[in-house]
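Sample 1 of the test manifest.
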Amino acid sequence: EEVEDVLEPPMRERSHIDATLRLNEETKSDDYSATLQRLKKIYHTAVRPLEQAYKYNELRQYEITDGEITSKPMVLFLGPWSVGKSTMINYLLELTDSAHQLYTGAEPTTSEFTVIMHGEKTRSVEGIVMAADSARSFSPLEKFGQNFLEKLVGIEIPHKLLERVSFVDTPGIIENRKQQERGYPFNDVCQWFIDRADLIFVVFDPTKLDVGLELEMLFRQLKGRESQIRIILNKADSLATQELMRVYGALFWSLAPLINVTEPPRVYVSSFWPYEYNPETHKDLFLKEEISLLEDLNQVIENRLENKIAFIRQHAIRVRIHALLVDRYLQTFKDKMTFFSDAELVFNEIVEDPDKFYIFKSILAKTNVSKFDLPNREAYGDFFGINPIASFKLLSQQCSYMGGCLLEKIERAITHELPVLLESIGSGKNPTFPSCDTTGCGEKPKNRYKKN
Amino acid sequence: EEVEDVLEPPMRERSHIDATLRLNEETKSDDYSATLQRLKKIYHTAVRPLEQAYKYNELRQYEITDGEITSKPMVLFLGPWSVGKSTMINYLLELTDSAHQLYTGAEPTTSEFTVIMHGEKTRSVEGIVMAADSARSFSPLEKFGQNFLEKLVGIEIPHKLLERVSFVDTPGIIENRKQQERGYPFNDVCQWFIDRADLIFVVFDPTKLDVGLELEMLFRQLKGRESQIRIILNKADSLATQELMRVYGALFWSLAPLINVTEPPRVYVSSFWPYEYNPETHKDLFLKEEISLLEDLNQVIENRLENKIAFIRQHAIRVRIHALLVDRYLQTFKDKMTFFSDAELVFNEIVEDPDKFYIFKSILAKTNVSKFDLPNREAYGDFFGINPIASFKLLSQQCSYMGGCLLEKIERAITHELPVLLESIGSGKNPTFPSCDTTGCGEKPKNRYKKN
């Protein structure tokens, strides 16, 4: 299969990729989809009803589609232009020099958000088609407008790795370019992908390391997702070792003020392309680093169910808190209203100073809620502006003879059903399955990167 | 000369040390001492008189002894305990396993400030002796007390490298130790050496990288001396390359908040001891890094005269500004005094709010003074508390028929004599002698590390 070409260096051996990612082992798709079906059921019976009853989506603009529950882990590639993001994807998916390779080059070549996913045969899918198909988990992207959908492309490829993960290639960041030139909200789109990515590769080219304003902006957007970030110092074999060390140090130096965590990020130093490394360089290190990165990727694949369950559970925790808050607003409103009161005046007073009525404090005190999970109070001003308080019912009235109470159902999902589901896959796999520390299933944010 | 010992690894070849440091070339000591004599003369005739007339030493506690003018460049070794500072000095000076080697070990072994300097034969000099000898440039250390002098040791060794530089070994920093346990002001002593060092090696051990409060304190003391700092990640061959890279990155990550400059510091990754590197490690890199560090050291040796002249010139600039300020205080005082005024009340008013009388502004406006070189105004409150304003004479009265005016003399030294002296050695050496950019001879601080 190797391409004979005098202009290009010989290809590297790539069996370590298949081995590390276990691409030749069959995935236990039965267990996998059974668990996802169960997860979908819990979501629809225990979380969704409360979400709808208290219009959670209007607060967070974060809706969970079935496509999102069943979707594969997403690996997002970010970074300046021409650092080798598309080249890396081509390499991992054996697309280099094929008819369907992502276009690469020394100038900014990727102007689209490109979702690379599994398909029976290679074909591309237009953005408007992807957004229309709710099973694909990209339907929420429609809100960024038709201009953006023209910059969204899907590519289906029958590669084994894509049975396990999807890749998202992004336009390289160009310093000193104006936002409006793009015709769509680039940063908002990035944020959407960042919020959903299971792994975020931020790629750099050591020969043109330039941390400017656009990149600073990007790292502001990455805040809170530090444990998903992996930095890649690509094309590492294009520098002599001493020079590479300087650049490697300078990269940490530049990133330290941008990533506000105590522990340094994991930086992989390697050259992610199919060709032999430059002979005069530290080839051993680069191969080891590539394998370490693949192991990291494999971890995300192995833990995809755990992560998905933890994700739904975290969402459920937020929905419950929201419901408790709206209930408290409503109860306070009802308590304050007399026959002669002006409903609007009374409620405005509550919304403008919720602390006066202990709205948030009471939630913290009465239930097992972490203060880190409370939404900010300003958001509720807007929320009740759109959704009149009178349109909601108290939690105590959200019960039915057959179905029980919505609050009890979501609490049971959080404390019992989802943990049991998590345990079931843990025991089926191996004894050292990730604890709540790593999947973040606890209510308190346990981010090991948190500054203390 | 190699030691045969089954317990220790074989010795490394060390010809690169002699070659890089040009230890086998004779130093042109005639030119060297002639220039220093000329510098001493300029200092004594043009700077010293003004210094004394306006008691500059009482403001800055910074007196320049003849010993300091003629002293060799000083290389200061700082860092946590047991990182290999003494081992590195033993290595560079071929003391390893000799009778006079610095004591090294896995526990904190260096409890003294050890000055290693040239001598005709190997012998040690006690701290009280060093402090008493004004030709040695360490006499100002007496002010740190007798307890400290017991912790100050000199070692004279007839090594060629010590004809060019002196080394200062320091007690390793121990986190969580109380200042008073030492019995002398450790930080003040460190600061004294830091202020005078031509090169500051901050050494780290990659197997126990721990940046704690004591080290944070150290880097606060290093502020303003960023261009003298070189970080050394020592014992680099005790880790596998991937692990070393992690530690190397973590070091930059930890130092970034402590060193407030845009450019990362130069970090040398190597293993500074006489034995062969661990065979499984990146030996090429370590040797290259060692040579780079030696080149750095050689630069300091080559530029020692330039640096010394620049140092005296900077001092002269400060003395001149001080004299101008005292003169202005005095002039303002005289202008405000009437026959009926209370001298103390009048002067207190000036000292308490010098801006009201444009003391500092007038200095900036009338003469070619950079605002970065102005001392802080609070210091003058204390200064005039000890030195009554009436004890000074106006600058216009500091003139004599034969000697001219003190102000004119120092200004001539700053603008003419010292630059000419600098040029004379530059032309004698090679055409690319360091410009004012690197020696800092300009009045504006041109620190390339400055955050902008």
